[in-house]
Design a protein that fits this description.
2 domains; two-stranded antiparallel sheet; 4 helices; two-stranded antiparallel ribbon; elongated; about 30% helix; about 140 residues
Length: about 140
């Protein structure tokens, strides 16, 4: 687990309903990164919801989520993509898999993916996009 910067989020609560004669067990495990640990609360509901396992709640505190405007929607015409150019661009992104904060790596990967799309895949014409937005 250390190799992948993972830790066990469970708090020793039982995750499975057992008969009174048996020991409580926590057979359902939740793993996460260290950066996720400070942004989350892990707990077990006392209700089994009809199962022999208790429901596990992982509450993530990721901050405000920005609303995406329809005007910022980009529709890429993948039929006209230069996939070799896209692959070459992404191949040069292997540095993303180095150690570091997972949230930062995700944001970097997302930005790199958008740059690759912008460089290698044309957008649909604005006529198509406005038709699409009306139906959306």
């Amino acid at each position: 687990m250390e190799k992948y910067d993972l830790f066990l989020m469970n708090d020793r609560s039982a995750t499975r309903l057992t008969p009174p004669s048996q020991r409580k067990s926590a057979v359902d495990l939740t793993f996460g990164s260290r950066s996720l640990f400070t942004l989350s609360n892990w707990f077990v509901l006392e209700d089994t919801l009809g199962s022999d396992h208790f429901a596990i709640i992982l509450d993530l505190h990721l901050g405000l989520i920005e609303e995406v405007s329809r005007n910022s929607l980009r529709l890429f015409n993948t039929k006209k993509a230069d996939w070799q150019k896209f692959c070459d661009f992404m191949q040069n992104s292997t540095f993303l898999f180095s150690s570091g904060n997972n949230v930062w790596k995700y944001e970097l990967f997302r930005d790199r993916m958008i740059m690759a799309c912008n460089e290698s895949i044309p957008l649909y014409s604005s006529k198509f996009v406005s038709k699409f937005n009306k139906n959306w």
